[in-house]
Amino acid sequence: MITYEDFNIFDDPTLEGRLAKIRTQLDPKFERMGTQMIANFEADATQKFYLHIAKHLRRHKNPPPDTWFAIGEGARGYKMLPHFEVGLWPDQLFIWFALLAEVPERQQYGAKLRQLAAESTLWAMSDLVIAKDHTQPKALSLTPANFEQVVRRFETTKKGEFMIGRLIPKTAVIFTDEQAQQQLLTRTMTDLFTIYQKISSNPA
Question: pTM score, two decimals?
């Protein structure tokens, strides 16, 4: 379970110190969470999924501002494919279905996103939020106008990205209640897996 104390790793201003805390304190939790999520996915689908825990190998000076794990169908990587990301910023937990800037065939994925927007399934998930940049801890409310804005940017901008999911502030009670946290994670991943199945099939 993610706790309030896990957010304290970001109080360490040094690269070595923060990475050490991430590796010893958070990564084992990410391993357990990701493995369980994959088991849940594979129980309901024919695809095989792989867990990728952020290693921050390219950081040589500044400590990472966030940390995460990703789940996708790529054994060697996830950024070029639709995938899920779960992780921490200093002030919040994020849970995303993501299409990052590295994803090819943007127009085809954009068409699938618009098909999704035409269905009532998406708008029934009104407490989800969307975002256009995974490097920023910011999100927009899920409205037709915001959805179209983020999809259009994803299709037409080199750095355009599309994420949909939930952001949970570190002050939320779920960080002291394991059962409530598990219920929220399960509900969120169920919602996002529904979206994943509609978007991740071979682009039209």
Answer: 0.94
